[in-house]
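For the sake of transparency, this paper describes our internal protein records without simplification. The remainder of this section carries one protein's record, kept here as part of the documentation:
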Amino acid sequence: MKPVIALVGRPNVGKSTLFNRLTKSRDAIVADFAGLTRDRHYGNGRQGKHEYIVIDTGGFEPDASSGIFREMAKQTQQAVAEADVVIFVVDVRAGLSAQDHEIAKYLRRLGKPALLVGNKAEGMKDSMHMSEFYELGLGEVYPISAAHGQGVRPLVELALGQLNLPDPDDEEEDRESGVIRLAVAGRPNVGKSTLINTWLGEERLVAFDMPGTTRDAISVPFERLGQRFELIDTAGLRRKGKVFEAIEKFSVVKTLQAVENAHVVLLLLDATQGVTDQDAHIAGYILESGRAVVLAVNKWDAVDDYQRQMLERSIETRLSFLKFAPMHYISARKRQGIGPLWTSILQAYKAATCKMPTPVLTRLLLEAVQFQTPKKSGMYRPKLRYAHQGGMNPPVIVIHGNSLEHVTDAYKRFLEARFRKEFNLVGTPLRIEMKTSHNPYADK
């Protein structure tokens, strides 16, 4: 499981800037304006071999009693509850405030690993301004500049060092144990627990007609026709504005970790509610994670022909980026259409862990180029020479040649279609990487 780092602090101390620096993204809006971030914001980061989830939070006011500030405080408290380690960000230039004391008091009471970080400390490492923060009682103050990246890398190493993480190579060996990890994901109340209970033939999980019944990612061992599975029932992912109740305290992080840790994800949709924005967000996260995916539309028996047609059209348009995923129409409660799901799940797992020999990939590449050459860009036409496999789950194909930065996205899709057809890659994303050879005579 990926460790979780939460960034907390009062408004406008640079938490979102640090979030963008850790995730190497621009996902969090940054401006010199207090209170801009209000919801929890999740992103992925990587330091060496270790990957982690980082949570950006709104400005923290522990004693906020009303309005949006109370809801922001709830969001931050939930982020702290989800985190393995907390980074408490203070503003060195603005100095210590009463609010910083309240946050420090809250963190000390929780007893969770916490690092005190003085942001905006460029050129102030040995300044007297740093010393006043020691009275917060959280130990050493680590000076950084999130905007310039100073001190950020050692900070992450320190944060991850608090957690005694296993070696990723050892984790990878543990994963290859012949057990297929299947995560069932989707919005609250689409029937995830009901489906797993139907598979198990017993009421193993609480299934109730109320969103948010499942609070955690629950793992259940299961065997079918000699193949062992680990079924993971995830808590439903709601829209950010709805994640206030304590019952969903761990839902988002546990679901994201379950998806990351799975071999195959079964994305469950609700036929009675259609494809929502949240379904598209969950599907996008699964795709970004590179997991194999199977789509299932539950409660198919509860809709009429017109609703079915509209739903099929909605799936085609809103989930068009999952065209490679097989789709099934089921009723978990009535046990309809559930058998064929297993065929698609095994097919998706087989495709995700498929081994593609270099001679076959190179032959397919050269045949594709002969059939349709890549488009010329200015003076240069990309030359694709050979291909090899660069990874599994998801499969990665690395193509070598010259001027490959000019290969268009349309041509990459053309190559992807040919590779998919040859290796029957159904239910898994396929990533194609281009590596241009260096010209040894370029500087002569």
